[in-house]
Amino acid sequence: MNYVDLFAGCGGLSLGLSRAGFEHRLAVEKSDMAGETYFHNFIARIDSDNWSSHLAAPMREQAGRGLVVGEVASLLADDGLCRKLRDEQVDLIAGGPPCQGFSLAGRRDPKDPRNELPWQFLHMVDALVPRAVILENVAGMAQRFNKRNHDSPFEQLAKQLAATDGGYVVQQVLLNAMHYGVPQHRPRVMLIALRADIAKRLGIKSSGTLWRSSFLDELESVPDLAPRPTTTRAGVLTVDDALWDLGSHGYNTADGIGRYAAPHGAYALSMRRAHLEVIGEAAPKQVENHNLRKHAPHIAQRFALYQFFAAHGINSNILNMPNVLEGRALRQEVERAVAGITSPFRAPSGVVAKDLAALVHLVCELKTKKHSQRALQGDQPSPTVVSLPDDFVHYLAPRTLTVREMARFQSFPDAFVFRSKETTGGLRRRIDVPQYTQVGNAVPPKLANAVGGRLSVLLGL
Questions:
Q1: Is residue 362 classed as helix, strand or coil in its secondary structure?
Q2: pTM strictly above 0.90
Q3: What is the number of other CB atoms lying within 10 angstroms of the CB of residue 323?
Q4: Closest CA to 22 of 317, 409, 460
Q5: Residues labelled catalytic
Q6: Which residue ranges make up each domain of the chain?
Q7: 2-235+440-459 topology per CATH
Q8: Is residue 295 packed enough to be buried (19+ CB in 10 Å), middle (13-18) or exposed (0-12)?
Q9: Helix locations, 133-195, DSSP H
């Protein structure tokens, strides 16, 4: 059985579906930067000219190789290609239309042109009438734009999907990646749908409401189309589980192989040893995409402070206080924050201040207007991975994370290589999709594998 991945990005959803037994038929991705990563990991390892020649090829030729670099609207406009795909019988259409217009972190403007892209997804379902559908997006998509709206965008899409030519039984789900073996707190909504004729034959029904995943040992029931969680609360994977074997310059060997035998040590081993089955690529001997970013000394000092705050449960916004307080008032706030902590004040990377006076001085010296930056905690899952590399500070070293470390939180195996430039800034952020953004925008492959695995069982793979 095959799948078409729309708005494919770098390929997290595709990788999970491939591992669930589905065969890659076609992906469509607008960005040539994300498309380069997809091509490298699903079509062929890029050499001196195969990527440039692919970009220069007509759309139908690109489609024949399995990746269209362009708009979904362009594919929809090609009646001949759509007819060919329909005649071949596409078993699954999956994808995550760009979600900024729906996100709680965005403006949520109902006139935002990006809100049209999920509807293009539905037009493709109408055109190809696949046996199953997966549509993924941010949790904010399940919220109404305002209280006067009849339905949220998510509910609108669910109703429209059910009313397409094939008719679909649609299950709305809110899945958290950490419930499916991913070391990251990442809630995402999905529509998981089965064509009406197949659902009727199998006796599959929707619960009619939004189902929320939970830990395996806290489950009450699971709808027919929802993937069963795989992780108990005690077994949730953490930042340390994901990163302990990655040193600043490559794989750690000092801890020995013994830790791999521990239940939580197995995750890092699986990331290192996993082959990239799609193109038959073996696990790498040296870690890729693990380039450390350079930080000025005072920035590294600030990162060590963030680590100290995280280790003791202190809100990192304490570094914003010197912008509004000074003198005795500031000292009292800092003293209140560190009450009960013995000096010298230590972070995992070393001593940050020898006493309270030195700490107050350091807070004043390193004050910032940033509110989103924080250090990770080794014994907790990662917060939701985003597209900016500066939001998170490493839990042991006073630095930000590498692309590979963020990819570990997303459950990409180390054999999956990210291409194009690492990051970008300024106005280029509006159009570029560099490596950090590719990672942050992706569906975690292990989560995609869980959803694909449930559908593969129902469809008889």
A1: helix
A2: yes
A3: 10
A4: 460
A5: 99
A6: 2-235+440-459, 297-375
A7: Rossmann fold (3.40.50)
A8: middle
A9: 153-162
